[in-house]
Amino acid sequence: QVRPVESGGGLVQAGGSLRLSCAASGGGFSFKTMGWYRQAPGNQRDLVARISSGGITNYADSVKGRFTISRDNAKDTVYLQMNSLNGEDTAVYYCNRVGPPYWNWGQGTQVTVSS
């Protein structure tokens, strides 16, 4: 069973940028629509960006114009470039296939934006 491994989070000042990476091998990655999700304390896990196997992207309104999702099928890896970060972007970020069904959830990577 696939369990994605996320990395690249950290502490950043408001207005700054981060690039997240997620490796997810073994589950037919190149054929799957992949997504980045985030979960802030006390909130549900929400899908913020998705990319189809063919590279078509969609974004939640809250991140549109600031975040860019991309993928490298040769490396079974999906990326999330995050610019102009603000406090509302503070959350644990996860990647997974866009489901249901979902793969096992990874540990996520914490993004904290300071004002």
How is the biggest beta sheet arranged?
A: 6 strands, mixed
User: SS-based structural class?
Assistant: mainly beta
The average pLDDT score comes to 97
Strand content: over 45%
Q: Which residue ranges are poorly predicted, with pLDDT under 50 across at least 5 consecutive positions?
A: none
Q: Report the total helices.
A: 0
How many strands in all? 10
The best one-word shape is globular
- Across the major sheet, the strand order is 2-10-9-4-5-6
User: Could you give the order of the helices and strands?
Assistant: EEEEEEEEEE
Q: Gyration radius, to the nearest Å? A: 13 Å
Distance between the termini: 39 Å
What's the helical proportion of residues?
under 10%
Characterization of the model:
The protein is mainly β. The protein is built from no helices and 10 strands. The strands form 2 sheets. A 6-stranded mixed beta sheet has the order 2-10-9-4-5-6, with no helix packed on it. It is globular, with a radius of gyration of 13 Å. The model has no long low-confidence stretch (mean pLDDT 97).
